[in-house]
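Chain A, query sequence.
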Amino acid sequence: MKPTNSRLTTVALSVLAMWYVVGCESGSGNGQQASSAVQYHTYNINAYPANKVVCDPMGGGGASSPKQGIKSELYYRTQGQPRYYSAQDYVDHTTKSDQNLFFSDINVPTRLFQSGFKTQTSDVLKDDSGNTLIEYFGLKMDTTIRLSDQDADGDYEFALLSDDGAILKINQNGNWSNVVSNDGDHPTRLGCSTQKFTLNHSSQLSSELLYYQGPRYHISNILLWRKLNSDQAAGQDQDCGNYGNNMWFDPNNNSQPTSKYQALLNRGWKVLTPANYYLPADSTETALYNPCTAGTVPTISDVRISELVSSDIWVNWSTDIPSTSQLMITRVSDGNTIITTTDNIVRTQHTIHYSGLQSNTAYQLRVINVSEDLGRAISDPIDFTTP
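Chain A, predicted structure.
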């Protein structure tokens, strides 16, 4: 039977509506155009801008899961502040950085520390005076400690090898207590726990590790644990309190472990692995995930400026796999950098319109893409000058 005009109109409107939804939906204020199938990223990529994230600043292989790792806050002295000799004083009295630091573990053998911290965009973190942060800073590291599949149920004690001060706090039934106090200026020293913990594979220890780096140049911070027999007490190891920058590792020979450190391991001590660390389970931050997860990195191609006026720029590019879209624009004269927000839609064809440039000004442009499993790609820079 031949369709009526009314039926034809209904079909036509349905097709038009479908085309509008999947072909013309725009991004959230940054001029992006959605591809033919709208799919949103699982995580809020805007929560951790690439120029505000530091991944494993002291080494480590990266987290294997977005829920694993250690989230850290960085604190540093400003001009005129006194020198502090306690990890807690850095948290209480110094300036908190706006950077987000993520560690996969706490395993830094004694070594020289001269290069500072680098963000995902390879900028080096500096204090308010423009000095690279290599001394007189503090870290507040939050995580949840669990047994991995390789760890046996039982009683455990903790220890810290650190240069300089470090304190391990653990929350038990809502109360925080200092489990290891290894504070103050000192070479690499073994600080041992005052109590033991009975753990099984459902146990979760909400933990906070405070660390500070005093005068340059050596740095060390390792969290260890040891499974005890039921009749053993914590804090009784023969080397508790012993210290020396050459006692445990050789900082002048790629931090090679010494026989003293090997003897520590032979007595049952182990370094906690990335599989033992999870992001804080009781956090109320809905955006909390590890942006340093080692995901599939998109391949970026065909980056081009399609239009440029005095205050606006339009940029187009492609990726081989679906990913979110952002621009990083740096003003050459002063290094001021902005990263556009993303609509969190993953796509392979990307278009962004940014408004807010200054006329007759030199800039450098990069595009940023984050895949569905958090692999991050940043393009080579493109230089341009506005008319």
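The two ends are 62 Å apart (CA to CA). The chain has a mean pLDDT of 86.
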